[in-house]
Write a structure and sequence with these properties.
single chain, mainly alpha, 4 helices, 89% helix
Length: 94
Amino acid sequence: MEMLLLPFAIIGGASVAIHFAASSFEGAADYLGRNLPPGVKGATLNAVASSLPEVFTTFFLLFYLGDVVGFASGLATCAGSAMFNMTVIPGLCL
């Protein structure tokens, strides 16, 4: 049980850091896009802000594991997010 405490603490700390970084970027993107039309703002700045958790997760896994496994884990995170965005969100909209 003690062996799992450190990995869960690392995952929790990384999740909190990713949350705060993505939230602050989203606020900055809203400020930068205040004069843009909604379609342009959503397709550019808000898309970047919504993808930051995947990017930060990929960087964290790559630098924490430091090898091919870390890169593959980050790539799987991005692929899973893309599959979710292509299947679940349109399914809910229908």
